[in-house]
Fold this protein.
Amino acid sequence: MSTRVDIVLDRPDEQASEHQVLNMGPQHPSTHGVLRLVLELDGEIVVKCTPVVGYLHRGMEKLAESMTFHMFCPYTDRLDYLAPLANNVALSTAQEHLIGIEIPPRAQAIRVMCTEMSRISAHLLGLGAFAMDLGAMTVFLWCFREREKIYDLIEHLSGARFTTSFTRVGGVANDIPDGFLSELKAFIDQFPEQVASFEKMLSRNRIWVDRTKDIAVITREDAMSYALSGPNLRATGIEWDLRVNRPYLGYENYDFDIPVGTVGDCYDRYLCRIEELKESTKILQQVIQKMPAGPVNALDSKISLPEKSSVLKGMDELIHQFILVTEGQDAPVGESYFAAENPKGELGFYFRSRGGGYPDRMFIRAPSFVNLQILEKIAPGNYISDVVAILGSIDFVMGECDR
Amino acid sequence: MSWIAAFTEALGDAAENVIEEAHDEGNHPFVRVRAESIVEAARALRDKCGAEMLHQISGVDYAEHMEVIYHFTRVTRDPGFLCLKVSVPRDNPVVPTLAHEWRAANWTERETWDLLGIRFDGHPHHYRILLAEDWVGHPLRKDYEPPTEYHGIDCTQ
């Protein structure tokens, strides 16, 4: 019988290899979570890399089948747990796509703001951890200092720093609190200077460039074949960003660029993330300028939860609240697929509904899961110490990968 | 011209044998193709309709049959999502693999096998991916019974 390691290495028992097998993870600090890599080494050179995933599988797709649309929202906080707000937004927008409703402009603008704040926070962590793995401790600390400011903002907005569950079908949980926009403005006013300091520390740093340039080059063809998305895809030179190519939430009204790379190596992936930080700042500036007035929830009592204050006084509102909480939104029979451009790539939700408040089937297209496959292609031929750089540059989250 | 019309045209005379159903309305248009012809259909979709990326494979368990869903993305010209479906019988769900055409299909097909128990004929590495190798059953099937015990761990509470 084959043992697990033979299955992983994909070779029969008797056929021993002269290469050394090194197991990296699932509890390795630079695998950023519970990723396990089985590396076959010839001296210090990797000849084969087999990623093993699934250590964090929680069966979210199965759980979703017994939950109303709102009940699943907290689970998305635990998908890409570096950008919970962006996951909330993607889920709710996908549910609205299935149900077939439009949300008011103010809710759209708030959601765009949430997504871009998450993108900044996720890229800061990705960049900080990448830099720390290659020995640049200062950048890590600076990134975390900035992230702390974003978390303060998120706490002010949603009441939670981490598990936000901020969106609802048809809108968001609450309007922007007083003074929030000026706090956000204060943050983005000082942020470009911080990004400049990260660049100053890294972009022309001899050690950084030596460790990342021409390491693990991903060609355009490989990127297509492996269905990469997000900054990893754009670093190969392919201009593909769902915010531009298939706009949702009014992204077509904002002026921003898609940064693309030329070579597709670790350095390009780093540069793409740095540029995306700047582009997200630009979008946030425009959100603050243009923030429309009006309601933050769709004015459809069959879809949106009513105001709490009116639930306590009005009969109709109480009934709607009761029905929506116990039975959920009545989705039409049918199916839909919606994908959002999340910090890690394309996060998609497929829904199949037989009517009623529970989805018959939901699947999550997790960008980290699909992106990780490319390790088997790009890791071989590099030194074992470069594997750390490659993992940092791919920037994945196992919560999302394993679901 | 919608991608479905272009796809039918690209298949030419073979279209009749390949396509079972084309659904061009609503917010999720798709083409249902015969299980044996999925490789041919996917190639035509890539080479003639520009669907360069196979970005997700998954499945749905209907009580009577099972369905494999292939989501493609057209990147370079006329960006969009394209979808193929394949129906397979519930007692012997087998589909030819696309892992030799798109590397992305490798893990997503393994995931579909793992969670739904649909076999992919010719897959180079046909093992479970998210669950443990000795797990019994495929959780996303509607008749799945969760285990009460796993290696001495009580799963009933």
